[in-house]
Amino acid sequence: MVKIGDIELPDFPLLLAPMEDVSDPPFRALCKEQGADVVYTEFVSSEGLIRNAAKSVMKLDIYEKERPVGIQIFGANMESMLQTIDIVEKSNPDIIDINFGCPVKKVVSKGAGAGILKDICLMEQLTAEMVKRTNLPVTVKTRLGWDHDSIKIVEVAERLQDVGCKAISIHGRTRAQMYKGEADWKPIAEVKNNPRMHIPVFGNGDVDTPEKAMLMRDSYGLDGAMIGRASIGNPWFFKQVKHFFETGEHLGPISLAERVEAARRHLQMAIDWKGETLGVFETRRHYTNYFKGIPHFKEYRMKMVTSDDSKDVFAAFDEVLDKFADYQF
Ligand SMILES: Cc1cc2nc3c(=O)[nH]c(=O)nc-3n(C[C@H](O)[C@H](O)[C@H](O)COP(=O)(O)O)c2cc1C
């Protein structure tokens, strides 16, 4: 059994990665239904939260049905991050996760996200103070290092553990790599093999087949896999991995009916959450992913992404079901 603080998880849990504009409550709920053991929100700005910015505050919404859920925050200013803990606690998440891995310039240039990999002492202090501020388990998501020449992840992970971090998820790339090249899981395995480590070490990066998840478990010996891009448009990925673990066989393809049903539920949950206008608008970006691969789909996609009325979008789903009934994924 794997534990994050007092949260008990099955062996080799599968975690939905935090993903900006993807890991919203409806998507997280769908992933949870399909087997994700822990889900994380997209990153939320501590500076946005302490200024009560509506966009940031909305990202704190969580559904009961998605638990255990972690809210991920980012920032580099100690006072703002500590105030953020107090704000985030009001949403009653199960976990607070610190983003020490985001590589984008506007985050890194302020010393936040992966920017903090240039100042390990601050990374350690921020984690220590945040752990002291809350009774919730604090976890960290980070990368291997700033660049190839400065990889110290074994030491970093141990220091974070020693100040009370309850689990660490490591993306097997450096900041300099952004998303290029292949994720390297060897340094993550070195973290896990450090005899001083006792908190769960989750591997992240390029797990896009059940076989790779199995490799991460059996050959690299990690405690669980955090899955990002493979779940986009495919919340069934978690079920596919678990089925493979249990049977050694691949689950059959996801049918059109299941895809339409997911899109339908996603839209309905988004409307229930944010209201008709925002719900319709913000679910648009997910449709291409659910229906990826269907040829001559443009006409239907356009209906889905240009209609302002949910009735028209639901009608487009019905049309798709009818028109592409024979399509095999
Ligand atoms: C669209 C998108 C948004 C992301 N947003 C976040 C984020 O908000 N916080 C974070 O820690 N990582 C974020 N990431 C990184 C992922 O969590 C993950 O580390 C990365 O995609 C590698 O895992 P994968 O190969 O399974 O996708 C994002 C990645 C993508 C593709």
Automatic annotation (TrEMBL):
<keyword id="KW-0288">FMN</keyword>
<comment type="similarity">
    <text>Belongs to the dus family.</text>
</comment>
<keyword id="KW-0820">tRNA-binding</keyword>
<dbReference type="InterPro" id="IPR004652">
    <property type="entry name" value="DusB-like"/>
</dbReference>
<dbReference type="InterPro" id="IPR018517">
    <property type="entry name" value="tRNA_hU_synthase_CS"/>
</dbReference>
<dbReference type="InterPro" id="IPR024036">
    <property type="entry name" value="tRNA-dHydroUridine_Synthase_C"/>
</dbReference>
<feature type="binding site">
    <location>
        <position position="171"/>
    </location>
    <ligand>
        <name>FMN</name>
    </ligand>
</feature>
<dbReference type="InterPro" id="IPR035587">
    <property type="entry name" value="DUS-like_FMN-bd"/>
</dbReference>
<comment type="function">
    <text>Catalyzes the synthesis of 5,6-dihydrouridine (D), a modified base found in the D-loop of most tRNAs, via the reduction of the C5-C6 double bond in target uridines.</text>
</comment>
<keyword id="KW-0521">NADP</keyword>
<dbReference type="InterPro" id="IPR013785">
    <property type="entry name" value="Aldolase_TIM"/>
</dbReference>
<dbReference type="InterPro" id="IPR001269">
    <property type="entry name" value="DUS_fam"/>
</dbReference>
<feature type="binding site">
    <location>
        <position position="72"/>
    </location>
    <ligand>
        <name>FMN</name>
    </ligand>
</feature>
<dbReference type="Pfam" id="PF01207">
    <property type="entry name" value="Dus"/>
</dbReference>
<dbReference type="GO" id="GO:0017150">
    <property type="term" value="F:tRNA dihydrouridine synthase activity"/>
</dbReference>
<keyword id="KW-0285">Flavoprotein</keyword>
<protein>
    <recommendedName>
        <fullName>tRNA-dihydrouridine synthase</fullName>
        <ecNumber>1.3.1.-</ecNumber>
    </recommendedName>
</protein>
<keyword id="KW-0819">tRNA processing</keyword>
<feature type="domain" description="DUS-like FMN-binding">
    <location>
        <begin position="15"/>
        <end position="313"/>
    </location>
</feature>
<feature type="binding site">
    <location>
        <position position="141"/>
    </location>
    <ligand>
        <name>FMN</name>
    </ligand>
</feature>
<dbReference type="GO" id="GO:0000049">
    <property type="term" value="F:tRNA binding"/>
</dbReference>
<keyword id="KW-0547">Nucleotide-binding</keyword>
<feature type="binding site">
    <location>
        <begin position="228"/>
        <end position="229"/>
    </location>
    <ligand>
        <name>FMN</name>
    </ligand>
</feature>
<dbReference type="GO" id="GO:0050660">
    <property type="term" value="F:flavin adenine dinucleotide binding"/>
</dbReference>
<feature type="active site" description="Proton donor">
    <location>
        <position position="102"/>
    </location>
</feature>
<keyword id="KW-0560">Oxidoreductase</keyword>
<keyword id="KW-0694">RNA-binding</keyword>
